[in-house]
Design a protein that fits this description.
This protein is of the alpha+beta class. It has 2 domains: 227 residues, P-loop containing nucleotide triphosphate hydrolases (Rossmann fold); 95 residues, Nucleic acid-binding proteins (OB fold (Dihydrolipoamide Acetyltransferase, E2P), Beta Barrel). It is built from 9 helices and 19 strands. The strands form 4 sheets. A 6-stranded mixed beta sheet has the order 6-7-8-3-9-10, sandwiched between helices. Strands 13-17-14-15-16 form a 5-stranded antiparallel beta sheet, with no helix packed on it. It is globular and about 80 Å long. The two termini are 38 Å apart. The protein binds adenosine-5'-diphosphate and magnesium ion (MG). Adenosine-5'-diphosphate binds next to helix 1. InterPro entries: AAA+_ATPase, ABC_transporter-like_ATP-bd, ABC_transporter-like_CS, ABC_transpr_MalK-like, ABC_transpr_MalK/UgpC-like, Mo/tungstate-bd_C_term_dom, NA-bd_OB-fold, P-loop_NTPase. One of its GO terms (cellular component) is maltose transport complex. Keywords: ATP-binding, Nucleotide-binding, Sugar transport, Transport.
Length: 334
């Protein structure tokens, strides 16, 4: 069991404030996903949690015990990176057993731990292979297995699937979901820039913005009730449509937002009048980009194959209830 408490955490590199007053309480066994734009401090926060990076202020505790000054190897935390960094000349078994041999565990115990982890990760039949004889997804599973055998209380993943091609990403994502279920007491923190990974794996998502926690919530809370324009624009793909100025003022807001799936094509004269700029066909659905005179085109997500040509005049409507309103500071209005 491992409850992680991050209190008033600051991290500076020279004159730069990278993390600013981060406060998070992560209950034991929770799967938390950190998302945010590139450079917002996700990796730095993971490295501070692991102890690879010293904090500049604040505290970290595990189950109420302050670990801020505890060396990385004694925190009970394991980290898996984007690059798997396996030992190329060692078999899968030996890669997974390495840390346990260093700890001087007995042969039978090492064997049992490695076989148990291999079974959880469907690596049982690959234990004799060398890393170069594995696919990228299999290699990443070995890297995860190498961490699991150490029975970490907290598991940190920094964009572990971003080197994999699309099909392997989906497969490995499902394996990580299964792994989470097989390790119910292990707290997991996972960094990704992939919307689907964040939405499907997370019990809760933490959105970071320039080194601060912008919002914490379940995936659906963040999707349906983003607290700010920033979260509204960051969670969801394609992005939420955001309109400012006169269009927003009509709704008593500085900015309004409407998701692409909540827009529909209406009769001429209804809603927003616009011109079709382009259509992307994804097979099961289409994204229609419509110029309504705002800074960016509005995106309409519509099922099936939308039959529009560039330059078609269209009218976009949205249910009143699907329009989110934000004030001038970017906070959502009730
Ligand atoms: N060792 C370092 N020295 C100085 N600046 C760093 C160091 N590591 C990261 N940074 C800076 O901290 C910021 C956050 O980086 P990082 O945590 O890697 O972001 P993310 O993982 O969200 O993309 C970036 O501006 C980066 O340049
Ligand atoms: Mg990073």
């Amino acid at each position: 069991m491992a409850r992680l408490t991050i209190s008033n955490l600051d991290k500076r590199f020279g004159a730069f404030d990278i993390l600013k007053d981060v406060n998070l309480e992560i209950p034991s066994g929770e799967f938390v996903v950190f998302v945010g734009p590139s450079g917002c401090g996700k990796s730095t926060l993971l490295r501070c949690i692991s102890g690879l990076e010293a904090v500049s202020g604040g505290t970290l505790s595990i189950d109420g015990v302050d670990v801020t000054k505890v060396p990385p190897s004694q925190r009970g935390i394991a980290m898996v990176f984007q690059s798997y960094a396996l030992y190329p000349h060692m078999s899968v078994f030996d890669n997974m057993a390495y840390a346990l041999k260093i700890q001087k565990l007995g042969k039978a115990e090492i064997e049992a731990k490695v076989r148990d982890a291999a079974r959880k990760l469907q690596l049982d039949l690959l234990l004799d292979r060398l890393p170069r004889q594995l696919s990228g997804g299999q290699r990443q599973r070995v890297a995860i297995g190498r961490a699991i055998v150490r029975d970490p209380k907290v598991f940190l993943f920094d964009e572990p699937l971003s080197n994999l091609d699309a099909a392997l990403r989906v497969q490995t994502r499902l394996e990580i979901a299964a792994l989470k279920q097989s390790l119910p007491g292990t707290t997991m923190i996972y960094v990704t820039h992939d919307q689907v990974e964040a939405m499907t794996l997370a019990d809760r998502i933490v959105v970071l913005n320039a080194g601060r926690v912008e919002q914490v919530g379940t995936p659906l809370e963040l999707y349906e009730r983003p607290g700010s324009v920033f979260v509204a624009g960051f969670i969801g793909s394609p992005k939420m449509n955001l309109l400012a100025g006169a269009e927003a003022a009509k709704f008593g807001a500085a900015t309004i937002g409407v998701r692409p799936e909540h827009l529909a094509f209406g009769q001429p004269g209804e809603g927003w009048a616009g011109t079709v700029m382009r259509t992307e066909h994804l097979g099961s659905e289409s994204y229609v980009y419509v110029d309504v005179g705002s800074d960016e085109p509005m995106i309409v997500r519509t099922p099936g194959t939308a039959a529009f040509a560039q330059g078609d005049a269209v009218a976009l409507t949205a249910d009143e209830g699907a329009i989110l309103r934000f004030d001038a500071g970017g906070s959502r209005l009730a």
